[in-house]
Amino acid sequence: MDEPKKIALALPSIEATAVDYLAEVVNQNWVTSGGPTGTKFEKQLQEFLQTEREVVALNSGTAALHLALKLAGVQRDDFVLCQTMSFVASANPIDYLGAIPVFIDSEKSTYNLAPEYVKEAIKWCLKQNKKPAALVAVHSFGIPCQVKEIARLCKDYEIPLIEDAAEALGSKYKNQPCGLFGDYGMLSFNGNKIITTGGGGALICKDTQEAEEARHLSRQAKSTAIGFEHDAVGFNYAMPGLNAALGLSQLQTLTERIQKKRELYQFYQECFAEIEEIEVLSVQNEEYYANYWLTVIRFTGSNSTKNPEQFQAFLAKKGIESRFPWKPLHLQEIYDEQHYFGAQNAETLWKTGLCLPSGCGLIKEDLNRIQQAINAYFSA
């Protein structure tokens, strides 16, 4: 008897119509960066976000964050506040610039950036006579952070706010999209994101002049139309036309993808409704709207014989992929000498959490297998 297919954590979902979009740029012979396809992708993203802010298509979310930090004026030895519960790409661009990450703990509701620890970190930096050069706030797992409180702190202390909305395309606070609250926002279109360009990202700038500077830097800072004159050290960060074409095809179904993710979250809520030792990470209240890019559960029973390691192994035997949350950045060996403010909230999520399959391509048969596995594990 054949083994059932593996249920992956978050495979890309690519419609057949993508072939038509890709064929068009191939036929135009504009598969590299520049050209009309990238511009069209930027405009459609802008329309989806319902914003006048400029959107700059790039080859990764990491590139977008790097350029945001540069535009914010971050320099060597500056302090940059950064959420510890995040993928390492939220911090690495700080190090690219020779700046110093100052890591901050999560709050206990959504496990995003805790405003009280942000304030504590700012005051510490000021005592060192170094006001933070920027703050990177992440909307982890597609759940919006307490962006109103964080934006207020940044405004009060005149600190540029960079929203890492890599996972939060379609998430909102008070009906305003994530990525539009700060001075800069960034998105990711990696293969596991809610839409993909294969590899890619975007920088959102509220200032048109800064958006043009970002485009300039992303194309090696070439200053003249003829010849090879460069007025700055630039980067090879522009999004190729092939990637933008795939992104255009994905944008056509973005609303449906967000709905699918939210339906998967509701499915897991129902699966765990009667299991006391499990909580499903959720928005704080109705003012927040999450795309639930990944549904994350947390084991809350301190004396329970059930734990995420055993559950992951059990699921793996059933052909179901799961993943632990990120190891907090302040615990990473590469950043073990950086400053940290907070308690152990992020560490708690890392040790007690598990990310469950959340791909838009999951079908009823997959969900039945997942539900059966959940029931079998927690009834044993």
UniProtKB/TrEMBL annotation:
Keyword Nucleotide-binding attributed: no
InterPro entries in the record: DegT/StrS_aminotransferase, PyrdxlP-dep_Trfase, PyrdxlP-dep_Trfase_major, PyrdxlP-dep_Trfase_small
Pfam assignment, any one: DegT_DnrJ_EryC1
Classification via Gene3D superfamilies: Aspartate Aminotransferase, domain 1 (3.90.1150.10), Type I PLP-dependent aspartate aminotransferase-like (Major domain) (3.40.640.10)
Active-site residues from the entry: K193
Family: Belongs to the DegT/DnrJ/EryC1 family.
CDD domains in UniProt: AHBA_syn
Entries under SUPFAM superfamilies matching the protein: PLP-dependent transferases
Any one GO biological process: polysaccharide biosynthetic process
GO molecular function: pyridoxal phosphate binding; transaminase activity
Superkingdom: Bacteria
Keywords, sorted A to Z: Pyridoxal phosphate
Full protein name: dTDP-4-amino-4,6-dideoxygalactose transaminase
N6-(pyridoxal phosphate)lysine found at: K193
